[in-house]
Design a protein that fits this description.
Elements: E1 6-9, H1 19-26, H2 32-40, E2 44-46, E3 49-50, E4 63-66, E5 81-85, E6 89-94, H3 111-120, E7 124-125, E8 134-140, H4 143-151, E9 157-165, E10 172-180, E11 190-194, E12 209-220, E13 224-231, H5 238-246, H6 261-267, H7 273-279, E14 286-294, E15 301-305, H8 310-316
Parallel strand pairs: 8-14
Antiparallel strand pairs: 1-4, 2-3, 2-4, 5-6, 6-8, 7-8, 9-13, 9-14, 10-11, 10-12, 12-13, 14-15
Length: about 325
């Protein structure tokens, strides 16, 4: 149990929204009813003053503060492993169900905070993994090395293993675009549009990002296929959104899986036993298995590997 203060400057997107509408849409780890209660309890401040009015209109540039009366962070996996360490960087093998950065209800229970507590200081995370994704990532120990590594990100080789529903037939290079999925009420969800469906882009508003992923089937059984996924671009949710668009959702994925309502019920803490059986896994079956990059000081190419976690491997046999 801990108290902490979260402070943010409101962006242009908050202009002319009510306090409740903005909180409910932007920070959906609480339901609208929960935010309404927190506003009534005086846990939200605008420009330093407590605001108990859910219909308060917001303006760009306002300072919004969230001061929970008492925050109990969700439990996480803490069995991370330091694969490599020197004076300028760490390579870490992260378990599933461990956030990398503070966000939402997580602060102390994050990889960043755990590493600081372990004596590694305030690190700069170079590449990111979703909370439920396991595998390899890099943390720079100095701002200079973080800057040098950031320059090499486009050339960094990352290969993932993922388990999908169905029989994925053959190796394929999936080229196309990611854009916000306006068909979904979940704000952060992305939609993959394959290159051969380019004409669809003319009918969709919003930004498009070109993506390319090579998927190679490694083995399959009657229910699932284990794939390797090599990123030629690196975008948020690229692998999961692309596979969902191709008709092969990732096992255990609440957002891009068999039913996006899993994600909504999970966020509200009301996943049923039936939901859990359909999800099969407690987290999405995605694992960063190989990472190759140029060391910012020595200039040498460094390559690291991580074994497929047992819970994913067992389902793929």
């Amino acid at each position: 149990m801990m108290k902490r203060r979260v402070v943010s400057t409101l962006p242009a997107a908050a202009e002319n929204q009510t306090l409740l509408a903005y909180l409910s849409g932007r920070f959906n780890y609480h339901s609208p009813e929960e935010w309404q209660q927190k506003i009534a309890q005086g846990e939200l401040l605008l420009n330093g003053a407590v605001c108990c009015n859910t219909e308060q209109m917001l303006q760009c540039g306002m300072i919004l503060e969230y001061v929970p009366q008492m925050l109990c962070e969700p439990a996480v996996a803490t069995d991370y492993r330091i694969v490599y360490a020197d004076d300028v960087l760490l390579v870490i093998d992260k378990p599933g169900n461990l956030p990398v950065h503070p966000a939402g209800p997580y602060f102390a229970n994050t990889l960043w905070a755990l590493l600081e507590k372990a004596g590694y200081g305030k690190l700069h995370m170079v590449n990111r993994l979703d909370r439920e994704t396991s595998g390899l990532l890099i943390a720079a120990r100095t701002a200079q090395s973080a800057g040098e590594l950031a320059k090499t990100l486009p050339a960094m080789r990352k290969c993932y293993y993922t388990l999908v529903h169905g029989n994925f037939p053959e190796r394929v290079c999936a080229r196309g675009w990611l854009t916000g999925d306006t068909r979904s009420p979940i704000r952060k969800k992305q939609r993959f549009i394959a290159a051969e469906n380019e004409s669809i882009l003319n009918d969709i508003e919003g930004k498009f990002t070109a993506v390319e992923t090579i998927f190679t089937p490694l083995r399959h059984n009657c229910d699932y296929t284990l794939l390797s996924a090599e990123l030629h671009t690196g975008r948020m949710h690229q692998i999961r959104a692309t596979l969902h668009g191709m008709g092969f959702p990732v096992a255990g994925d609440k957002l891009y899986g068999l039913d996006e309502n899993f994600y909504r019920r999970f966020a509200q803490g009301i996943l049923s036993e039936s939901d859990r059986r359909q999800l099969v896994l407690e987290r999405q079956a995605l694992h960063c298995a190989e990472l190759s990059f140029v060391h910012p000081i020595s200039g040498k190419t460094m390559t690291f590997y991580s074994e497929l976690p047992r819970e994913i491997a067992d389902l793929s046999m």
